[in-house]
Design brief:
alpha/beta, 9-stranded mixed β-sheet, 9 strands, 36% helix
Length: 237
């Protein structure tokens, strides 16, 4: 069995205990759960009951990308998975996605996801956009990030080739990574919701929408030519 490292960045999130539980309760048992406290001042007591079951790292506040990168640096898994501290993995998330990746010899994959509210009630069972052919995927990535970071699993060797998440980006480090990754790897899609994405009033994408919008526009401009070149090449094939 191959080891899967689940990295959970944590910053003042009241749902952190639920995220940790969903990672520890995976049906696939060869996982390590790494919680990176990114300079939190609240809710640390929710982590205490799990300290003997997880790897816990504290650092000064630097943003999600810096927390992910520190978690990756301290991981020992053959595969990497990212879980936000306010989201949840379905019990069979790692088991199903790992089997899917091994069957397809995939280096990177992502899945669909459900949305839930602050009280864990479903908003939508199948909430994610998806594209079943590469050209459609690339055309949409030129416009927006439809890939939920917590649905992604990748071989950790990808970071050796690609580098880690861009720490200068506060809200779009995942979008930047996918735009780089798709130039080197196939992004395999598993059409099943394996993550519960929590929609709530404190989520960063709502509170800092202006900064996020500026980052998105910058990335679209930065990678426009590269992605267009790949699309044109795919059309010739």
């Amino acid at each position: 069995m191959q080891m899967v490292s689940i990295v959970i960045p944590f910053y003042n999130c009241p749902f952190i205990d639920k995220a940790i539980e969903s990672a520890l309760n995976q049906s696939y048992k060869k996982v390590e759960v790494i919680v990176v406290n990114d300079g939190s001042t609240e809710y640390m007591e929710k982590i205490v009951p799990y300290l003997n079951k997880i790897r816990y790292i504290e650092k000064e506040n630097g943003g999600t990308a810096s927390a992910l990168n520190l978690g990756i640096k301290n991981s020992s898994g053959d595969y990497f998975a990212w879980l936000s501290s306010d989201d949840l993995f379905y019990k069979d998330k790692i088991n199903k996605q790992l089997a899917f990746m091994q069957e397809n010899n995939a280096f990177i994959s992502y899945t669909n996801y459900s949305t839930i509210d602050a009280d864990n009630k479903y908003i939508a069972q199948l909430a994610g956009k998806y594209y079943l052919d590469k050209i459609s995927l690339l055309q949409n990535l030129k416009k927006e990030n439809h890939i939920n970071g917590c649905t992604v699993m990748m071989k950790t060797q990808v970071f050796s080739r690609m580098g880690n998440f861009n720490e200068s980006l506060k809200f779009t480090q995942d979008y930047d990574f996918w735009l780089r990754a798709v130039q080197n790897y196939e992004l395999y899609y598993l059409h099943e919701p394996l993550v519960k994405y929590r929609v709530h009033s404190r989520m960063g994408s709502r509170r800092f929408i202006d900064i996020q919008t500026r980052e998105i526009q910058m990335l679209k401009e930065k990678y426009y030519d590269q992605i267009t070149r790949i699309i044109n090449q795919e059309k010739k094939n």
